[in-house]
Here is the input.
Amino acid sequence: MSSANIAIPAAHRVGHFSYAIRNIVSEAKRVEASGRRVRYMNIGNPPAFGFQPPPHLVEAVIQALRNGENGYCPSVGLLAAREAVAEEYTGRGWAISPDRVLITTGTSEAIELTLTALVDAGREVLVPLPIYPLYTAVLAKLEATPVYYRTDPDSGWLPDLDQLERMITPKTRALVVIDPNNPTGASYPTAVRRALIACAERHGLPILVDEVYGDLGYGGPVSPLGSLAPEAAIISLSSLSKGFVAPGWRTGWLAVANTPRLDEVVGAIKKLADGRLCSPTMTQFAIPVALRGDRTSQQTLRDAMRERAAITTSMLQAIPGVTCVAPQAAFYAMPKVALPPGKSDQDYVLALLRATGILVVYGSGFGMSPTEGYMRIVFLAAPNELREIYGLVGQFTADYLR
Ligand SMILES: Cc1ncc(COP(=O)(O)O)c(C=O)c1O
Here is the structure.
């Protein structure tokens, strides 16, 4: 008997893998095909809105290609790049040596390598709610369990520390902290950051801190979490994607605290990294240039985002039925709509898309309950376009809630 007509099944674990930020684009394409202009406010991709990496970074990559740097490099990355990352952390108060730095294919690969090195199937990892969905997607792949600790919109999206501590069990393997935060735009005060470290240390847990928005605090760069406790078991993850607006280069890093408690984990991460050979070589040449060179473009970017955040907050707050916590960093806001009974956040977001062409992501794509009515907005568009967009959101929402 021939099996030629029987569909080949995909692995079950992929059933738990979802990434709403990109999944909803298929619906947007349908709307676009019907002739309506779509405004993509679903993905934090600054070059799509005219922001570009500083020319000296671009020059470094071009030069690398002209110099024939087309081969593999060491799995851990180019030494010059690792030295620059180590110097950056050290200069910001967290002493790191280059041998504790690994260059990755974006923060995304740093997340995947670190969780894979730390977490066995059936174990638990504490992640903030709302969550940047790659964490839960990777945990699904590892057959491990995300345990959500609440961050509270009433306190500016700060973690609920009491609840967090109550959720730690013998199965817990790590605490994920995303600060500054996507999707909420929060930037945690020092007291909260210290409390997170103290909690993790009390329970012997490593912290994976995602600091990809560390250079985009509206009040200036945010110091690395490790600078508050150099002895703590902290692994920091970051990249050129946001602070240097080069997300398509897929170039990032992870840095591991200089504590012997993490030596085995460093070894495991390096072993995993060997298996994928290396991350792209030519863009690694931009890392030393980015971190040691002129950084005035980052101030320009912070100023631009502060202005957009203010427009976003004031215009959304002015819409009846909508509330929005003011972001403190990055280019995201997480407003809430008081949904009519029986409606979900996805219903609202799809109706908004079909009626106006505005694409945002429903809060349940970040783990929120669908009836709470959250959505995440990426506010990288120009101020005037944002005003126009929020005007349309206001008109649509008035009709929707009538
Ligand atoms: C919190 C967070 N972590 C990681 C990433 C992925 O960044 P990268 O482009 O460095 O892989 C993003 C991208 O939006 C993010 O928001």
In short: The chain has two domains: 12-51+296-401, 55-292. The domain at 12-51+296-401 is CATH 3.90.1150.10 (Aspartate Aminotransferase, domain 1). The chain has a mean pLDDT of 96.
